[in-house]
Specification:
By secondary structure, the chain is mostly helical. 87% of the residues lie in helices and 0% in strands. It has two helices and no strands. The chain is rod-shaped and about 55 Å long.
Length: 54
């Protein structure tokens, strides 16, 4: 998932350089959402992995 966030970030940067403001904004928004989802899942996996199994 982090890979997709980075891909959309690169697409946003390229679109911004070429002057496509709408596309750059949309790709940056998607990258932000994917990064937040990745971060939440990463923290959840850290918390779940620390619980001792009974």
């Amino acid at each position: 998932m982090l890979h997709y966030a980075i891909v959309f970030l690169v697409i946003a940067l390229i679109a911004a350089v070429l002057g496509f403001g709408g596309i750059a904004g949309a790709a940056a928004g998607i990258a932000k959402v994917l990064f937040l989802i990745f971060l939440v899942l990463f923290i959840a996996s850290l918390i779940m992995g620390r619980k001792p199994r009974a």
